[in-house]
Batch of 4 targets.
Target 1
Amino acid sequence: MLKDFAKAYQPDKETVKASLRSERDRLFANQMKIKDAKLPVMVIFEGWGAAGKGSVISSVIQNIDPRFFRVATTNADPTEEEKRKPFLYRYFIQIPEAGKFQFFDTCWMEEVVNGVIDKTLDHETYEKRIKSINMAERQLHDNGYLVMKFFFNISKKEQKSRLDALLADKNTKWRVSKTDLWENRHYDECLEVYDRYLEDTHRANAPWYIIDAKNRKWAELQVLQFLNQGIDTALKNHSLAVPILQNTFPLEPIADLKDIPLDKTISDEDYKKELEALQAELHDLHYKLYRKKIPVIIAYEGWDAAGKGGNIKRITGALDPRGYVVEPIASPTAPEKARHFLWRFWTRLPKTGHITIFDRTWYGRVMVERLEGFCSENDWQRAYNEMNEFEKELADWGAVVIKFWVQIDNQTQLERFTDRQNTPEKQWKITDEDWRNREKWDLYENAVNEMLKKTNTSYAPWHILESVDKKYARIKALKIVIAAIKEALKKAGEK
């Protein structure tokens, strides 16, 4: 794209000046339109060192109410803490709320191209990064985001002239980094890498706009024109349904819930003996996980009163409290509702060597949100693929992903609800909503069966915990967790 870049016709100064006034006014009006339409706008600025990204960002945001935007500056090199999270983490957590702008002064491009240039990123990892970025940008677009990407282009000669000018002034020389100087000396080498990246991430849902950045006001005008055009188009398309993608992930067969026998039990004596032994084993494995820096994500879903809480308690009882967290997932807060539905789970991921247990998960999208009308049919139909992609990102990062469905029958749930209702110290566990949901048992069962079949991947399979006998379910869960951790440690070379 950069090699083939043909500069657009640049008008004279007076025309540029007049057009800037018009486009600035247009952006000012558009900010209210995106607020009313709840359109989130993510604007990414990339480009050559000294190409003027910062000054154009400063000019553009002057036309927007400061309550409706934020500017994020991301260092090319992640911190040690950020390195302990998935590649997309530090970017995805900064996506904008609905109706607001988020401007990125460099985003995921810089980390990737720098890794290629300094040879710390091999070909296989580069391809994975590109796939992750394209996936993230497509998911954002499909969930109603406008993603605008600008690359500020200047020639090698122009870049050197600007760097020399900055270095000549004692008040601006600090703005020139060693990286900028190296980039100019190796301009052609960098051009090859940048061009490849732009080609690899140029998609219809998030295209690249190459900006002729030789003149600052002309660069600003180009950005404003493209940005306003993008907003106009997004507003027209905002209510349109998004195509549902075919599943491309390896799925394993799984039985319908009605076909799973629930007569499995364990004696109190065997339970006590096995629980003690398994918790001791898991306790030891937790320290090995930390040493090998393997993250673990355990996701619990299941019927109300199925015994998720007690099951989680027996797992956490074996763990060092400094190395795990339990995330109880309730209805999304206002900031969570205003973002991509997976955002609140990206923000809760463990760092390497730690364990996060989710009590309810992202699968609410295709259960309660689906059946209660909290999202559109197009939203929950797309979500199967998006959740498979999310879990694939986690698995590729090196995480152990364990998903439990805690299963009981309708009659057992009724007995437990009645016991809670009639026992004062348990009444806090039962709500009117729980009783209402019982009336939709068949609808929920159909939704769960569809969910299990469409998301039972080889890298993040579902495990059914037969929980009419809660003690049996607890022992089974411990065994599954231990087996999964042992397998991960084996792959990591731990004996």
Note: The mean pLDDT is 96.
Target 2
Amino acid sequence: MYTSDKLVRFDWAIKRLLRNKADYCIVEGLLTALLGKKIFIKSLLESEGNKDTETDKFNRVDILAEDENENLYIFEIQNNRELDYFHRMAYGTSKCISEYMKQGEPYEKIRKVYSINIVYFSLGQGKDYVYKGTTKFVSLHDENDELVLSQAQKDAFHCDAPSEIFPEYYLLRIDMFDQVATTPLDEWISFLKTGDIPITATAPGLQEARERLRVDLLNDAEKNDYYRMMENLRYQRSVIETGRAEGRAEGRAEGRAEGRAEGRAEGLAEGAAQANLANAKSMKALGVDVNIISQVTGLSADAISAL
């Protein structure tokens, strides 16, 4: 049951509700809290990721924003595990740069791209819940020797380092956040994880979000669309977790049998492989899309079809 103070998920809101200029302050608030400087959005641009239905855009939300200095911001929100998500990040920035580079323009006109990635699964290995990635040129012979721009380049490009030209990546691993919010960014991440915004929140954009994203403000069509997305997410996660649990149980049983016959080392390896196959079989039997099974298990579509 959704109460009057229940808020819609940000990933749904950002592509359904926050496309009017009056609501830019919410997206600006997240960017300001993340980047540590005030950001003003000039416009939200259309990208190929903006589909008409939830099923067209189940795994990812792409929003492309432009600030007053013509810098570009890619928002991607991923709910389900995706092994090659880092590759997707690289592809997204590369495509953005090429699409917004006019034919015949000099290279110095390349626009700065910020890639904001909000993921609800464990991506990579690390202790923190927020990571930043930049491009630096460091000497192979002296790790303290970092290549910088010449004075002429600084004057021409209005920046101090090559890293200010290349894309910047921000990775927010929402499920890793388990702390009390003490900073504006923490308050935002807490909202992204729990869907709640306390009345005492001070982070930029959150109080506006608290008013704008109330479920009871949605019209009937929006509510139906939102409830459908929530059910899809619950079902998808339930199916995947069920498949993993059944796969682990079956794999452990087969692995123990193999291990007793052929030795512990081979048994563990075989058990892991059997667990993966059993996982795939279970998800296939439950009707999970082949592409999602492939992302979870690493098996090819042909191998899954042959099960």
Note: The radius of gyration is 23 Å.
Target 3
Amino acid sequence: MENYRHTKVLIIGSGPAGYTAGVYASRAMLEPLLIQGIEPGGQLTTTTEVENWPGDSEVQGPDLMIRMENHAKSVGCEVLSDIITNLDLSGRPFVATGDSGNIYTCDSIILATGARAKWLGLPSEEKYKGFGVSACATCDGFFYKNQEIVVVGGGNTAVEEALFLTNFASKVTLIHRRDELRSEKILQDRLFKNPKIETLWFNQVVEILGDKEPLGVTGVKVKNVKTGVLSTLECKGVFVAIGHSPANELVKDVLKTHMGGYVITKPDSTETSIPGIFAAGDLTDHKYRQAVTSAGMGCMAALEVERFLAETK
């Protein structure tokens, strides 16, 4: 049986952007309703140590998200375990349909559905995620001081990650299936001039190698795409840098997007191309993709929603 709910502001997504928006919207007495989505807590729930969250020299990603959820609830944000499967943004009130069968109507929406790192799709990759396999050099590079690591990819993201990781690693091997990079030329020049970086052309990773106790990466098995020859490369960390995909399925045909599907917001704002719809976090951020910047945008979105609702009464 369908259950109809109405709220002044519906928050879709439960990462740092969503929960921060919930805190600020609650403090503004907007009585927000937050729908957690398919991955409650977002990408941070797939990480282990987080050492760049202000106020915590070290915190486990899942623990941080539980704290953020509890904070949002403590100030009055209602958090529901549901997945929005359809959005009707053709008129106000906006209508969201949940996988549960619930129908949510609302005067405004904060989209905080995030983005997903693209992965290689290897079973061994899944096994070592958070234990030597990562998709975020800024998040995890610090753990590989004076160690040899691998970066997989050939675009701007891969080159930027490889360059950044030289701040920590003794050696970085960039593995690419072609013999030329897709990144900007200025980045390539920096890469080729860096003595810590070695490129392995015409190769692809076919398996992540590692130990069980303690769980950790010890190397990668690679295959030459031209000859089919297999070889092994020792390393302590593998950074997959083949891009990110914004979780825009609900709005990709309705809101204006760019840079491969990231939702466009107005300058210095979280307002999208439809009045009353705001976007925060990795759904709109193709540049920084950090928990702290996502939280900041969640704050911005809630404040802008408060202003929008006051002006459209």
Note: The longest helix spans residues 291-311.
Target 4
Amino acid sequence: MKRKSMLSKVPEVTLYFWIIKILCTTVGETASDFLNVSLGLGLNGTSVVMGFLLLAALVFQVKAQKYIPGIYWLTVVLISIFGTLVTDNFTDKMGIPLEASTIVFSVALALTFAVWFAYEKTLSIHSIFTLRRELFYWSAILFTFALGTASGDLMAESLGLGYLVTGIIVCAVVVAAIIAWHLGLDPVLSFWIAYIMTRPLGASLGDWLSQAHANGGLGLGATNTSALFISAILLTVLFLSVTKRDLIAKTLSNDLPGKQPKGVFLQTAVVIGVLVIAAGLGYQWRHAKLQIAAPGTAAAAIMPLGDLSEFRIIAENSLTMVKSGDIPGARNRIKDLEKSWDFSEPGLRPKNPQIWTVVDKSIDRVLTQLRSHAPDSAACCLALGGFIAQCRGLCK
């Protein structure tokens, strides 16, 4: 039985689509840092605020009877930020390793696609004109953003590849998908591969632009980077709203079930297999290389994590600011500690995983106190003092 026809709820896949998509993913990374750290909302506060905003945007998007650029892309921006926060909560609040988060979100995305296809017999975004398909679509989008954040951070930070190298690797995968599409790869499969991979690409671009020079970035800061990309998104969406260059004008009817191109399931299995094997081998190679680089000398027993003076100095600066009543300054300075520690993780953690975990938790306590809704000076001083003493004790 045919369902009632209506206009498509998503844009046509054009160059503008991919430009805004990458801009949105970059904003998802930098805006999350801006709200969490620069505005001092904290991870919990930012998650709650963005969750409510995303829910409101989804209500407007679902109620719309056709594709409206402003509503659609606002939803994408918000889901990008929220997807980043989901991964950050897994990592920072729950202590789940990025390896586990990457696997969890990969499985969740695969299950979403499987259930979506089981019900609708198509994963084409040109068929998003029923409520159920739209809900499947946005669920998949959320998991692509969470997965992209986890995999991007895993590559750039945990495996120490850096933001630029990570971006180049992801870009190479996207280019390979485009070439494969021209050579006969199923267009729906090609689209979702590119869509998933542009998330870590945008996240790496955002981190590369916003992070300090010492952490491998260009030092623009989360505020400037977010403002730059949000402005670009607004201008592009305004252009599309006026010109309607990305509008799927024709009325769509329900896709015929069971009309999949010959060999698409085999293509999907082969592509997934290649990506999983390549990712697994790459992870093992990089992890082994980091293990070899870890010191095994007698000095490691005296300084198990090496020289921690860089982190201690940042904490001492922050402590001085707290004691002088400059909580906002201390909160801003402590960002350097968080980023430097995360960036140094690939080199420090293999030296002594147990001690690294202890110090990591000590830094988390410092961040929690300084980023609380109403920071208590005494509690901040206690957390900072404990971390400083810990650094000195490990470097004797």
Note: Residues 1-5, 251-258, 297-301 have pLDDT under 50 and may be disordered.
